[in-house]
């Protein structure tokens, strides 16, 4: 570095340090007067400025000034070590200006999140502020803008502009399809290379198709097995590929297996309610499996919202003095909505009232709206990562079955959705006996007395492990709780053959008040939880009988169409 350059950098450094305190004060003033009504779901305008823990504030300020000064002094070094994968390529770390830009952004992001943590407010308000700041921080990353993204600029030069042209093509394609591409959707066709387990549709009504799968064993258990997936998604998350299909696994274990394939609602279903789905879908599916198989009792499984629906159906049946289900499995299911994780930021009285006025008496919640909400729960991974790759770098995402399913969204009837929001996330009525009426019956989970298998994923951001575990405190039957590694989907779709991840069990039969207390006494076991669940289910499945050689009730029964059926193929 020449003397003139050194003098210039020194003077600039002095000015930089002088401006730090001024910048800090301006940032604090902006943060304290933040308009919560403008950035937070369901929030009204902040009536008073935000208040902070002064102890935390001093620590954040001191750390900011120290780290900002170090960043400036480090600014001219030829090589930087940046841990964040958005800025880890040589295009960023080997370019002093780009590296400084990334470092400054990361410091500001860290400081902003620290300020959010330092706000003195009730937990709900604090969570909303943290969520809003996280969205702002993720969206403002320099990697999201071509003018600052050193990696995208380098690629544009190397490809002589071809990457930019391809990025524009990708953008126009995604605008036409209505969502950001997370995978090469052209590589997948439902029924051809996803949802391929052999079976047939044996019943349908306006809510669902019932699929029966062809046995893979010479004998099956006498109690058939019904899976109820979430109605906010397509069922084939449970049947992606033969090597990771939960449905195929269940069939291979000797269970005569049936699956509810929900209809993707259109305007003809705009008036349908929660009661409609419980009576005419969940309870109807249970009855149809009984009728087809001749079994007095069946085993049932509910996944996510499918589990919430199953719990309500079982409570309604119990109130009617009926017990057609011998055992129930609940996968990443909320029944007690005390711990709802990050989704809590969206739910308050104002938001629910708005949704009730908007669609409580009729209408549809568009699938893409719901999909966008879930994507922004992990904005860097599920939104901006693809914006940068697809549009700035002109890359095409590789084919990935899970992300194809994730992009295949479904609609929801407005009255169903509005009722669900109020009675679960907002008022948490299911856990109070008699607090809510479904299908003309007072819901009392204390009457759902049967063996249950409850699974929760340790890193689940949609159904937190505490929320999944809370079901153990309300269901009176003999229980088995299992915690798996990873998140909402990857934790569930974990076939034994992959030999991935761990699961945790506690064999002393104790179910303390909280998940953390349960975990403290649990043992970690390598690999999938599927084998543990299969061993458990077999003890409730009855004796083995010859596998049926036909679909439906008897040899004369006619099927409607081959699996996976046409309902699952309807796009939102």
Mean pLDDT across all residues, rounded? 89
Instruction: Describe the global form.
Output: globular
Distance between the termini: 60 Å
| Tally of strands | 17
Please work out how many helical segments DSSP would assign. 19
Q: Catalogue the unreliable spans.
A: none
Rg calculated over all Cα atoms: 27 Å
**Sheet with the most strands, sense and barrel status:** 11 strands, mixed
Q: Provide the helix percentage.
A: 40-55%
What portion of residues belong to β-strands? 5-15%
Strand order, largest beta sheet? 15-14-13-12-7-6-4-5-2-1-17
Secondary-structure class: alpha/beta
Describe the structure.
It contains 19 helices and 17 strands. The chain is 42% helix and 12% strand. Strand 1 (199-204) and strand 2 (208-213) form a beta hairpin. The protein has an eleven-stranded mixed sheet, sandwiched between helices. The protein has a two-stranded antiparallel ribbon with strand order 3-16. A two-stranded antiparallel sheet has the order 8-9. The protein is an alpha/beta fold. The model has no long low-confidence stretch (mean pLDDT 89).
